[in-house]
Amino acid sequence: MESNLTKRRPSIVPGYLPDLSNIQAPSVKTVKDEEDRSKEYSSSTLIESLPSITNYETKPYLTIRKLQYENPQTGQTTHTSMAHTYGICVLNTEAEEIIACDHYNNRLLMFNSNDNGKLLQIFRGDLATPECVTPRPNYRQQIYVTKAHSISLYDLEKKTFIQKLGIEESGHANNRFNSPTGIVVDPDNGEIYMCDTWNHRICVFSPDFRYVNRRWYLTRWEQTQHKVKPNFIAINGKNQCVVTCDDAPNYRGAVYVFDKMGYIQKIYDHESRKYPNSEAKLHVPHGILLDDQGNWLTVCYSDPESRLVERREKSHGNGEHELITYWCCKELKGPSALAMKRDHTLIVGDRDENSIYLFKQNAAEHGNHHLHI
């Protein structure tokens, strides 16, 4: 039986979804489709196994903050900086460039992740207050972007939008949103999972932006009158979906675990004590990573003592038990976004410091963990 906590209430807006049973669904137009496929480097950034956060150095080996950009057309060099670093992602390319949402500068930035963090490109245009980004599987130069009550598919090579859903005004219909943030794509079927933050819900769309009649609302445990705001989202290859949420200052936040149909499995927060929920001291959790074993790592925006919190399964006797670990880094002032490279370099976007930090594992701890490609 479905829990009232996340009761899914699919509402069909009159006149919005016509009868399409006899009509072929349109496909998203792609830029040089065959060429993109031939250049494809990886189809997925799902994480097979997350290293423990205790394996990492507590100081970043690279900080991206003060930016210098050389215009390839004019050769002119300019100095710039970020204004609130929101979502970040790593492209599915050989070079694994970093894409960052430079929120208040209304642009996306591309950085070199392998050497000195050099600013490679700046993307402007219809990019007012970008919130989050995620790669499109199988298309290494295409990303999904949430911004200004909408979601868009953007081509980095052409510097143009391919498709958009939503408008500049907020709303609550199937094709209207209210400040959406976190976004992730299931590489198995291309379905898009999005945090419609101020509508307090998760929405799921097909690759061509059709509403697939799956969405669920988030409320506090056994307090369905108290809605919470989903911030960031991650999925794995084992039918799991994790969402960070909060309702600050009244509710410090939680990590909710669902299956991909939106049925609640578990909640991690300060207050939940009843089975199957667990206690975790989270203070406005934002970015989150998830592996195929169900282990997750999140970053807390408002906790100077425990900037990163992880949940892991540990063998104990004849069974398994959960271990919650808290990790501190003095350099992080307002961390918000998380990403990870194939070699497990951890990337943290700091919203308040307008910076991106890269962390390596301790040499002695660098094992055989790997990303699923």
TrEMBL record:
SUPFAM superfamilies: NHL repeat. InterPro entries: 6-blade_b-propeller_TolB-like, NHL_repeat, TRIM-NHL_E3_ligases. The keyword Repeat applies. GO terms for molecular function: ubiquitin protein ligase activity; zinc ion binding. The keyword Nuclease does not apply. Residues 1-21 are annotated as: Disordered. Pfam families: NHL. Keywords: Repeat. Residues 1-10 have a biased composition (Basic residues). NHL repeats lie at residues 169-208. It comes from the Eukaryota. GO terms for biological process: proteasome-mediated ubiquitin-dependent protein catabolic process; protein polyubiquitination. This is Uncharacterized protein.
